[in-house]
Write a structure and sequence with these properties.
The protein is mostly helical and 181 residues long. The chain contains nine helices and no strands.
């Protein structure tokens, strides 16, 4: 028993561009539709037909994952003309009720989180500069220089609180004196 091979897997590399997308769509091999954009013979009408079949076949949660992979393959493929890609992208956009697959895409979530943090930091910096401009205009240039592109929300909120409650220009200068970043 010991030393015997219980399971043996032999993997074969398959080059998707060597496969014909029309073959798999004509046989309704829906499990392979996610990789259709990378196959030869993938045209806009064929992929749009495949998308519509996927929408009818899969439940919402499973469809989400397939659409994310389908879109990734579509964006990366070099086997399709740009115009065909655009037409398929438009079809994806027309599936508005399936926008969840974009919203729940991990890459989109990561980008959105980053942009939200950047936007929040920009708003707090703007608030700090507005207070300084109104109360201590002579420190505006220094504040712009020191705040620059500081992105740490906690530090910016601390500076905002100190600037908002400062009783003199000297207090504000002291807050800005060490580099805020």
């Amino acid at each position: 028993m010991w030393g015997e091979t219980a399971l043996y897997f032999k993997f074969i590399a398959i080059c998707l561009r060597d496969l014909d997308a029309r073959h798999y769509v004509s046989r309704h091999a829906i499990a392979l539709y996610t990789v259709l954009p990378a196959m030869s013979g993938a045209t806009a009408p064929l992929l749009i037909q495949a998308l519509r079949e996927m929408v009818q076949y899969y439940e919402r949660e499973e469809l989400k994952h397939h659409l994310i992979r389908f879109r990734d393959m579509l964006q990366r493929t070099k086997t399709m003309a740009r115009q065909d890609k655009r037409l398929v992208e438009e079809e994806l956009l027309m599936l508005r009720e399936y926008d969840f697959f974009i919203d729940e895409n991990p890459l989109v979530k990561k980008r959105m989180a980053k942009k939200l943090k950047e936007g929040e930091a920009k708003g707090v910096r703007k608030s700090i500069l507005t207070i300084i401009k109104l109360r201590y205009p002579s420190l505006e240039a220094l504040a712009k220089q020191k705040l620059g592109k500081v992105g740490d929300i906690e530090k910016l909120n601390a500076v905002l609180s100190q600037v908002a409650t400062a009783s003199s220009e000297a207090d504000v200068r002291q807050v800005l004196d060490p580099p805020v970043a």
